[in-house]
Design a protein that fits this description.
With 365 residues, the chain is an all-alpha fold. Helices cover 68% and strands 0% of the residues.
Length: 365
């Protein structure tokens, strides 16, 4: 079985895109509320957000691409799980304390414990990602064994898991569109689960099981890299771009439908993680990065620091965000893109600096 012996520059680019999309999502200074304003620009801004739904899934895909083809060491793996759990708690406490001083909102020890216990959004909600990774890593040893020694059973698991996650969501998406647009009912997926009767049979009801599918698919895709590379560059790029346009359009229309029924803008990013369009976009983006086969120091550095960037970005954003929001002229999509690029580089620099400080560096590596 082939193993990755050097950095994959395409995966570096995917991880860089992933952290860029995460920060672009969290730095949404622009208004995209097309419910309150019917101008085309608001619909365009909402359409742009559909590609951002690939942000977190890209991390799981890239992780699976890499780890399924490495030699597995259970002892190191358990240490990694414990490290992620410790990082979640330590960074939860650090983030709360630092944000208290930034915001001037001083909390009692009881309030801090409550926020930490509930992983409360607005303070440390973004750390859910570490929880998702731990959930996935807990079952990874079993997946790795099956992947290495019984590929048919592994494929069976991926298909079944995919059906109960992406398949379930997709069927309900179609059902909701039919109910709201054809039957003109106000019921949505929040009220009706077409497959709810099968809940008793569903072993994948944990909130992040879609992450397992992304990772497994990443492991499988690695073995087809040569076949994909054999397809003419122009042809595969056209197909990939077409797939992205169609998938984003489907997710956009779905979001518009849900938003109009609910009377509030549907979060096409957070709610889009486990949708088929996002899965298609992940694969299409991977096909596009196959063209990137040379080293770029900036992209490689960002890729190596994605965890650090993720952990510190909310703190830095709490400082910079209010400055931007004070100027209405800056609250545009184009400024958001430029700001996010600069923000990624700034967070990367801070992460690199922290990694050079004895003891403290262990907070990131």
């Amino acid at each position: 079985m082939g193993k990755i012996s050097r950095r994959d520059h395409g995966i570096d680019l995917l991880e860089t895109l992933a952290i860029f999309f995460v920060l672009a999502y969290h730095c949404s200074f622009y208004d995209f509320n097309f419910i309150g304003n019917k101008l085309p620009i608001y619909y365009f801004r909402y359409f742009f957000r559909t590609i951002l739904s690939t942000c977190v899934p890209l991390f799981f895909f890239a992780n699976g691409f890499l780890v399924f083809h490495r030699k597995f060491d259970l002892k190191k793996h358990v240490k990694k799980i414990l490290r992620f759990m410790l990082l979640a708690v330590v960074w939860g406490i650090l983030t709360i304390v630092i944000l208290m001083f930034i915001r001037g909102d001083y909390l009692s020890s009881k309030e801090i414990l409550r926020i930490l216990w509930r992983w409360q959004g607005g303070w440390i909600g973004h750390l859910w990602f570490l929880g998702a990774f731990v959930s996935y890593y807990l079952i990874f040893p079993l997946l790795k064994i099956v992947f290495d020694y019984n590929r048919r059973v592994f494929l069976y698991f991926v298909v079944v898991c995919g059906i109960f996650t992406f398949g379930r969501v997709f069927i309900n998406n179609i059902w909701d569109v039919c109910v709201t647009q054809i039957i003109h009912s106000t019921a949505t997926n929040r009220d009706i689960d077409l497959l709810g009767i099968f809940n008793i049979f569903d072993p994948f009801r944990a909130p992040y099981y879609y992450a397992v599918v992304y990772s497994c698919i990443g492991g499988l895709v690695y073995e087809y890299k040569d076949q994909l590379m054999s397809v003419p560059v122009k042809k595969r790029n056209i197909y990939a771009l077409l797939a992205i346009v169609l998938s984003c359009t489907f997710l956009w229309l779905l979001g518009i439908s849900y938003s109009k029924v609910n009377g509030a803008v549907w979060d096409v990013v957070w709610e889009g993680y486990d949708t088929v369009p996002t899965l298609v976009n992940i694969l299409a983006l991977y096909v596009l990065v196959l063209n990137f086969n040379h080293r770029n120091v900036v992209i490689e550095t960002v890729s190596k620091n994605t965890l650090g960037i993720y952990l510190i970005h909310e703190i830095i954003l709490d400082i910079l965000g209010p400055m931007v929001m004070r100027h209405s002229s800056l609250r545009t999509l184009w400024f958001n893109i430029i700001f996010t690029i600069v923000f990624v580089l700034l967070c990367t620099s801070v992460a690199e600096f922290i990694k050079r400080i004895p003891i403290i560096k262990h907070l990131l590596i």
